[in-house]
Specification:
Number of strands: 0
Structural class: mainly alpha
Largest sheet: none
Shape: elongated
Oligomer: single chain
Strand content: under 5%
Number of helices: 6
Helix content: 55-70%
């Protein structure tokens, strides 16, 4: 009598032959659902990324904005009304005058105006606080690049 059970070699050959066919058929059946799921994940990732960038930009704008008239730091510097001419009023006026913006020749980085933001950011960590202040004033007065100003703010916080 002949046995009806396949030998291990026959099973291996059948698996090698039929497995790719079954996998291909399953892939064809699931392909539209897989594509839709991938599209949904891409849309979701873009949404989360946009939210993160918007939140970061908003926070940077908030940190770089001058204090508003109603802020507590501004209220502390408002002088009390005086009956006559006094030095308190003159000192308060001097506090609110903007500092002069340094010229490009006075900056710590030569050819600052020709450097891309990525090069400037990589060189900022080696500068002194006074040099960072000068670069910040110059950048705020001219190009106002968020990457440069953000890195300066980060280095000043340390």
């Amino acid at each position: 009598m002949a046995s009806s059970a396949p030998t291990p070699a026959e099973r291996a050959i059948a698996a090698a032959f039929y497995a790719p066919i079954g996998l291909g058929a399953q892939l064809v059946d699931n392909f539209p659902g897989t594509v839709n799921k991938a599209r949904q994940q891409i849309v979701f990732a873009r949404f989360i990324g946009k939210m993160a960038v918007d939140q970061g930009a908003s926070e940077l704008r908030r940190r770089l904005a001058p204090p508003t008239a109603g802020s507590e730091s501004e209220r502390q510097h408002v002088p009390e009304p005086d009956d006559g001419p006094g030095d308190a009023h003159d000192e308060a006026a001097d506090e609110h005058t903007p500092e002069p913006v340094p010229g490009p020749a006075e900056l710590a980085l030569p050819d600052y105006d020709q450097l891309p933001a990525s090069h400037i950011v990589s060189k900022l960590s080696g500068l002194t606080p006074n040099e960072l202040d000068a670069l910040e004033a110059y950048e705020m007065a001219h190009r106002h690049r968020r990457t440069v100003l953000g890195k300066i703010l980060q280095l000043k916080a340390v």
